[in-house]
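Researcher: Structure prediction, please.
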Amino acid sequence: MNSIQKTLSRALVRLAWNNGIFTFWNIPYTGSISTDSYLGDYCIKIETLECEDQNSTIPGGFFTANPGTGSPYFYSNPFSERPEFLNFYYKFNSVGGDSAWVGIQLLNYDSITPDLSYTERVEIVAYTETYIKESVSEYTEFVLPIEYDTEDFPGFMWIGFRTGDDPQNINYHVGTTLWVDEVTVSGGTLNTSDTNFLETWISLFPNPAKESFQIGTKNRTAIQTLILYNYVGQEIKRWVNTQDSYSIANIDSGTYLLGIETSKGIVYKRVIKK
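Model: Predicted structure follows.
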């Protein structure tokens, strides 16, 4: 993990501890710091609660933000890279079929030109969102590929989590809870020199693949674990240690994400199943 990834991961927890990350619904405060972490001392716990004065349930949420400041700092932080993935570890307890929502946005903001509306000042560089629908009792890695709308570099980044907002289920249930830890962004321009070298040391072929694929390595790079994810971050298949080939014969056609853990670090590659 490079220095930018470490800073982001710590910042989400540190800002939450200092109320720098806020709930989308301000009353009640439905997110908190928990010691039920994956690594380190703390994680973010987001829970749907009952709002007694409104006789309703309110989904919990945490977002990168800086309350008390103006746009775009109020809901985002300065960030000028083009990562490929949003990575985090999570647990999820769904009550009544509720989902959890995850989103990331990279943007530019024109604070200089006069007489512009808010929407005219914002340029969306990338925006990706998805839903976690199934309960997970043990911490699991989630990898979300970031989809870009322009070739520009952003000036700001926003990341958010909520226990709700699935358009197919708007009746939120008390007790739906999401735990989030080790939030990072990776790939793209965030790669360190070591990771850039590692990208060239690992090859995947054939790609597209119909029945199986192989992994080639250089410079004594040992494969430890391979994890195949679909494009909503769910683990589909896992292989441990080096094999001659890796079968995907029983997997549906489509595009997947392969996390390759090696003796020299982790890289991600896209895999196309015919």
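Model: Residues 3-17 form the longest helix (15 residues).
Researcher: Thanks, that helps.
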